[in-house]
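Repro:
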Amino acid sequence: MTTVKGLDFTESYAQASDREVEGLTIRLIHYHHLLAAKRAAGRPRDQNDLVNLLNIKK
């Protein structure tokens, strides 16, 4: 994926991190970029995700 509404790919990629999950290395978007993408998308499912993500950090 190289385009996410509300984000600059180069900046987001540079701040992402690699994690190993069950022997597979995956690149994860930074938490703050994930929040920005969810806000920009504006879909009901993204708004629900945003509420849940914000509650996790409390």
